[in-house]
Amino acid sequence: MKIINVIPLLLLTLILTSCSTVRVATDYDRQANFTGYESFAFYKPGIDKAEISDLDKKRILRAIDAELSVKGMVKSESPDLLVSIFTKERERVDVYNNNFGWGWGWNPWWGGGFGSTVSRSTEGSLYIDLIDAKTNELVWQGVGSANLVTQNMEKKEARIREIVAEVLAQYPPGMATK
């Protein structure tokens, strides 16, 4: 009987932890010399194409600026790297089957039974592209995918900072913190 009390707690924990994770993937040009990149600037034509509000663009760019500054890079008029972003958004539907019952089989008068919980959320992906300013070629791309927060502005800004930090933790290649 004790396991029956634990199952809802485990399900709640799974739901809450799945909301806070950021899935990150990166790719890069193995021929690029990442130690030579010391300055950056934002690539306006690329950023203007991102299909999000200007306020969210500002939040993302401020977070990128802060993360790259922590890595020792400086914003410059003649940069080594150009930073561009784009976003994708989709609705995520998770179905959790609660097919647990009590005893040996299903009994409509004694608990048990079947049911499921449907959870809908908006999942967004933020792509951060780093382009060599001299060659105009993409040298590094990171993408972070996570559930988005849209109701509370403080939580939304914190979520954006978290996603950007997780993505840029993988830059430069080979220097990521474990």
Can you describe this structure?
With 178 residues, the protein is an alpha/beta fold. It has a domain at 23-90 and 121-168: Double Stranded RNA Binding Domain (2-Layer Sandwich), CATH 3.30.160.670. The protein is 33% helix and 32% strand. A 6-stranded mixed β-sheet has the order 1-6-5-4-2-3. Strand 5 (116-132) and strand 6 (137-147) form a beta hairpin. Helix 3 packs across helix 4 (153-168). The longest helix is centred in the first third of the chain and has 19 residues, at 2-20. The protein starts with a helix and ends in a 10-residue tail after the last helix.
At a glance:
The chain has helices spanning 2-20, 44-49, 54-70, 153-168; strands at 23-28, 39-42, 74-75, 81-97, 116-132, 137-147. The chain has 178 residues and is α/β, with parallel strands linked by helices. The protein starts with a helix and ends in a 10-residue tail after the last helix.
Unreliable residue runs: 6-18
Q: Give the CATH level 1 class of the domain at 23-90 and 121-168.
A: Alpha Beta
* Strand coverage percent: 25-35%
Which fold name fills CATH's third level, the topology of the domain at 23-90 and 121-168? Answer: Double Stranded RNA Binding Domain
Helix content: 25-40%
By CATH, the architecture of the domain at 23-90 and 121-168 is named 2-Layer Sandwich
- If strands are numbered along the chain, what order do they take across the biggest sheet? 1-6-5-4-2-3
Q: Which word captures the global form?
A: elongated
Q: Mind telling me the C-alpha Rg?
A: 22 Å
Structural class: alpha/beta
SSE topology string: HEEHHEEEEH
From the N-terminal CA to the C-terminal CA, the straight-line distance is 40 Å
Largest sheet: 6 strands, mixed
Q: Counting H and I runs of at least 4 residues, what is the number of helices?
A: 4
